[in-house]
Design a protein that fits this description.
The protein is of the alpha/beta class. The radius of gyration is 24 Å and the shape is globular. Helices cover about 45% and strands about 10% of the residues. It starts with a helix and ends in a 6-residue tail after the last helix. Strands 3-2-1-4-5 form a 5-stranded mixed beta sheet, sandwiched between helices.
Length: about 280
């Protein structure tokens, strides 16, 4: 009949197995979407692959689109930086720094959080190398007391070495005498963004966007206490420990730091010692 052997043995694949696989993947995607409501298809793909599933981003995108799981980002902007003040403004020294480890550069920022009947304000400090939130504070007032609380929390958590660069915008909350005194007391190198240039503090801005679209915009906080509890849970448990970060090779900040520390310990142990 002039047909190849492979054609003779070919049997069409039934759709049952594929449908079952799609259903299983869809179930897991729905579970992940409840936990990470703003995960896109790329992070979903990375998470499923970490769990041992053989999927590619095209399949995940198709299933998420069919299940209406693709997130729709809301874009909002509220000005929280007041750089019209009499305090000293420091130059940007972070821009020329090459980071090779944790606690070399910290970045700080402030954002607003809307409650049912009021606004509150969140100050955060991130390690620029691991993207981990190392300190944060929530307040009804956007003042130096807010930023000082976040800074003291970060210092108590990390005990950074002297010379660590602290980078922020040039807002009054970061330029105030009270805040600068803490930075000088612990030996920080002070760095501030150029005026009107949000790209100088892109890592902090990126975290704030993640917080808004993955937690704040999908929640309705009724009270200050509720907002503090929910935001703290997102920062400490989800963002720091579970959320996959594309800039870190799709691992969480805590997992990234653990890998870095493990590598450094291994290098220290394997390093040759000089004979006496």
């Amino acid at each position: 009949m002039d047909i190849s052997r492979s054609t003779y043995y070919y049997r069409p694949h039934t759709d049952d197995a594929k449908c079952k696989q799609d259903a299983d993947i869809r179930d897991r995607l729905e579970e992940l979407a409840l936990h990470f409501p703003r995960y896109g298809y790329r992070r979903m793909t990375a998470q499923l692959q970490r769990e041992g599933l053989l999927v590619n981003h095209k399949r995940v995108l198709r299933l998420m689109r069919e299940s209406d799981l693709l997130c729709r980002t809301k874009r909002r902007f509220v000005r929280t930086t007041d750089s019209d003040h009499p305090y000293r403004v420091y130059p940007n020294v972070y821009g020329d720094t090459i980071i090779t480890g944790v606690d070399q550069v910290w970045v700080a920022d402030i954002t607003y959080i809307r409650l049912l009947h009021e606004f509150v304000y969140l100050a955060v400090i991130l390690d620029a190398y691991s993207r981990r939130v190392v300190g944060w504070a929530l307040s009804r007032h956007i003042d130096a007391a807010l930023t000082c609380a976040a800074l003291r929390a970060a210092i108590a958590e990390r005990h950074p070495p002297r010379g660590c660069i602290h980078h922020s915008d040039r807002g009054v909350q970061y330029a105030a005498d009270e805040y600068i005194e803490i930075l000088k007391e612990y030996g920080f190198t002070i760095s501030m963004s150029r005026k009107g240039n949000p790209y100088d503090n892109a890592q902090a801005e990126s975290f704030m966007k993640t917080l808004k679209v993955e937690e704040v915009y999908v929640s309705e906080y009724r009270t200050f206490a509720e907002a503090k509890e929910r935001i703290g849970e997102f920062i400490e448990l989800i963002y720091n420990q579970e959320r996959l970060h594309s800039a870190l090779g799709y691992v969480s900040p805590v997992e990234f730091e653990e890998a870095v520390n493990s590598t450094q310990r291994h290098l220290a142990i394997s390093a040759p010692t000089c004979p006496v």
